Predict the structure.
Amino acid sequence: MLTIGGFSRLGNISPRMLRHYDAIGLLRPAYIAENGYRYYDSSQLSALAQIETLKSYGFSLAEIAELILLPQEALAVRIHAKRLQMHEELNGLRQKIRQMEADIERMEGAGIIMEKYHVIVMQSPAQRVLGLRRTISISETHQLFQDLHAAVESKGLKRAGVTQQMYMGDDFSYDAMDVEAQVEVLGEHPDVVTIPAQTYAAVTHIGPYETLRYAYEAVTDWYKSQDQYDICGHSIERYLKDEDSVSSPEELETGILFPVCKKQ
């Protein structure tokens, strides 16, 4: 048996919160001594972990009291519904962020923001990639790459370089993007394709994905100001430092690449 202090340390939760869980019937001690001391069994750590996980998903304690009684299949349905709700909330937040950015740009002037971008013309070597193409909303991008990494593993391949997203459609839409998530791989499989070496107009964006549009605008301004190249293919977001390799969104590093050809 564990004292409330020992159980709280193992469960990474405060004794005060454990007392609250006891008071509302969410997680009761295994034994209460005559002197009122609470004791927990180590087997209750898994129940505590489930409670904390559901709380991190945004469920209220009242909801969690109901959820922990459900069989796994029914619980999965409730978590999926919560996931869809959070996607809707995220889409709403993204729309507000885009409006805020537009207001900031109007108030401060685009020139201040655009000064940090330097567009170059570069050669990118050939890439062997596994791709996964879908039409998705912008909020589904993370899930698309999770599915891509799962596909790499299921096909017996090994990641060998960057991940990137190629925009296949002619028009961009936050709600219906025709994109292909790609990852450089080692190994042989019929689904692995080679992207030929290509000349790109490219710019590097450092910071959150929500502000990537400024990098795109930098390439657009560059294209309008020169007369040597035409854009001749699908644009790519190349994740040089992605969410798995940085500690904050400000450290994200993304290459924006547009394939270009010399004008005839």
Remarks:
- Helices lie at 4-11, 15-23, 45-56, 61-67, 72-108, 110-114, 141-154, 213-225.
- The chain has eight helices and twelve strands.
- The domain at 2-69 is CATH 1.10.1660.10 (Multidrug-efflux Transporter Regulator; Chain: A; Domain 2).
